[in-house]
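[recover] target loaded
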C-alpha cells in the first residue's frame, strides 16, 4: 500500500472536489497539478496587502517585494540544487527551452552542427530546436526507444559525434513516465563536447532533483506542474554558460546602461528577465516549493510509485489492455483498452468524476512510433489515493460494458 502521509493532503486542495461537492478523481496531474491552499494564500497576499513592483526600491513596500522575489529565486534554485545566480524565471518550461534555443542555440550552433533529441520528446523540446536548426542550418538526430519505450542511451552513444553540440532530453517522459539515466546521458554528451539539456517538467514534481548530481548543463521546469501557479517556470543553467549567453528579449530590467549609441546588459539572471516579471507567481512558486519540501520528495515519490505499481498491475490483468512505458514509470501510466478510443474512455470516465488525459500528449512523434493516434493517461500527484484507482478501474469496467467488451 502507498506510504501514507501523516494527514489527509486532499484537504489542502480546494480543487479536489467537483462543483457539486463530490470527490473528484483527478488523474491529470502530469498536465497540471491542483494547488494547495498555501499556494493560493501566498498568491493572494502577494497580490493584496504585499503588492508592489520589484527592483524600484525607493519605498519600503517595493524593497520588501524585491526581497521576496529574490528569495523566491533562491528557494526555487535551491530546490533543484542550483545557485540563485543560475536561475532565470521564465513563463514556463516552454519559454525556458525557447530561450536556450534562441540565445545559446543561435550563438553556438553552426551549419552542419547536430542536435540529438529522442523519439519521446514533448513538442516543446522539439519545435524550438527545429526553429533554430532551420535558421542556422543545424541537423536534428532522433534517438530511438527501447522495447519498454525508454530512451535508448546505448543507441544515443552510437549516434553521438563531435558535430553534436547539444543533447536535449526529457528527464521523465510525460507520456510513459520513463525516467532517463541523466548522469549517463550527461557523460555521453560531455564526451563529445555537447551540452545536455534536461526537460524536468515531469521529474521536478515527483523526485528529488539535484542538477549537480544529474550533471546537466540546462534544466527546465514549470511551476504549475509542481502545485504552483501558471505563467511561471524556471531555466537553470551552469553559471559559465549563462554568462556567455546573449539576451533573449530586450527591455527594462535586463540592461546595465542604455544609450542610443550602445546598450550594455545586466549580468545573468536579470539579463534574461526583460520587463516587469511575474512577481506574484514567483512568490507563489516558492510557496509551492515550500509545500512540497514540507512533505518530502522521497515520501511523495514512494507514494506515487506505489499507486503506479497497483494501477499497472490491475491494468495488466485485463487481457486487452496495452500498457506503455517501463514498469517503474514515474507517476504516470499510459494505456489503451482494446480498441476503445481514449477519448471515448475519457468521456465516460468523466461521468463518474474520474479525470484522465486522452490524446497525443503533445508528443505526436511518440504516437507515430507507437503506431497509435492517442493514449489514455492517468497521472498521480501527492493528493492521489487508492480510491482514485478504484474509481478509475470501475469506470474502465463500465466503459467496456458500454462497448460490449466485457
Ligand atoms: N515538457 C514536458 C515533458 C511536459 O510535460 C510539458 C507540459 N505538458 C512541457 C514540456 C511544457 O510545459 P509548459 O506547458 O508548462 O511550458
Amino acid at each position: 500500500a502507498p506510504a501514507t502521509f501523516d494527514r489527509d493532503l486532499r484537504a489542502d486542495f480546494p480543487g479536489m472536489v467537483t462543483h457539486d461537492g463530490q470527490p473528484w478523481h483527478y488523474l491529470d496531474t502530469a498536465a497540471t497539478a491542483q494547488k494547495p491552499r498555501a499556494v493560493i494564500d501566498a498568491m493572494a497576499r502577494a497580490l493584496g496587502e504585499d503588492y508592489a513592483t520589484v527592483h524600484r526600491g525607493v519605498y519600503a513596500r517595493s524593497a520588501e517585494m524585491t526581497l521576496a522575489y529574490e528569495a523566491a529565486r533562491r528557494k526555487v534554485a535551491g530546490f533543484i540544487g542550483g545557485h540563485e545566480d543560475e536561475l532565470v524565471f521564465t513563463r514556463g518550461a516552454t519559454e525556458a527551452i525557447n530561450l536556450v534555443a534562441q540565445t545559446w542555440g543561435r550563438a553556438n550552433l553552426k551549419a552542419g552542427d547536430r542536435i540529438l533529441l529522442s523519439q519521446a520528446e514533448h513538442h516543446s523540446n522539439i519545435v524550438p530546436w527545429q526553429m533554430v536548426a532551420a535558421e542556422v542550418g543545424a541537423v536534428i538526430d532522433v534517438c530511438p526507444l527501447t522495447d519498454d519505450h525508454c530512451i535508448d542511451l546505448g543507441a544515443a552513444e552510437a549516434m553521438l559525434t563531435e558535430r553534436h553540440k547539444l543533447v536535449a532530453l526529457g528527464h521523465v517522459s510525460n507520456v510513459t513516465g520513463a525516467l532517463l539515466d541523466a548522469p549517463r546521458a550527461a557523460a555521453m554528451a560531455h564526451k563529445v563536447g555537447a551540452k545536455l539539456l534536461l526537460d524536468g517538467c515531469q521529474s521536478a514534481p515527483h523526485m528529488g532533483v539535484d542538477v549537480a548530481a544529474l550533471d546537466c548543463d540546462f534544466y527546465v521546469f514549470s511551476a504549475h506542474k509542481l502545485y504552483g501557479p501558471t505563467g511561471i517556470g524556471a531555466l537553470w543553467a551552469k553559471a559559465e554558460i549563462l554568462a556567455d549567453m546573449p539576451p533573449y528579449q530586450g527591455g527594462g530590467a535586463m540592461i546595465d546602461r542604455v544609450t542610443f549609441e550602445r546598450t550594455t546588459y545586466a549580468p545573468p539572471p536579470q539579463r534574461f528577465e526583460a520587463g516587469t516579471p511575474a512577481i506574484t507567481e514567483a512568490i507563489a512558486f516558492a510557496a509551492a516549493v515550500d509545500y512540497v519540501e514540507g512533505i518530502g520528495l522521497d515520501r511523495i515519490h514512494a507514494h506515487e510509485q506505489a499507486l503506479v505499481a497497483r494501477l499497472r498491475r490491475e491494468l495488466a490483468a485485463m487481457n486487452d489492455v496495452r500498457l506503455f512505458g517501463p514498469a517503474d514509470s514515474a507517476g504516470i501510466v499510459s494505456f489503451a483498452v482494446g480498441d476503445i478510443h481514449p477519448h471515448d474512455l475519457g468521456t465516460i470516465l468523466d461521468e463518474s468524476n474520474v479525470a484522465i488525459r486522452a490524446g497525443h500528449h503533445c508528443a505526436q512523434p511518440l504516437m507515430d512510433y507507437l503506431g497509435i493516434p492517442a493514449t489514455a493517461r492517468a497521472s498521480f500527484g501527492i493528493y492521489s489515493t487508492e480510491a482514485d484507482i478504484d474509481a478509475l478501474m470501475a469506470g474502465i469496467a463500465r466503459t467496456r460494458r458500454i462497448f460490449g467488451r466485457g
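[recover] notes: The chain has two domains: 9-30+296-402, 41-293.
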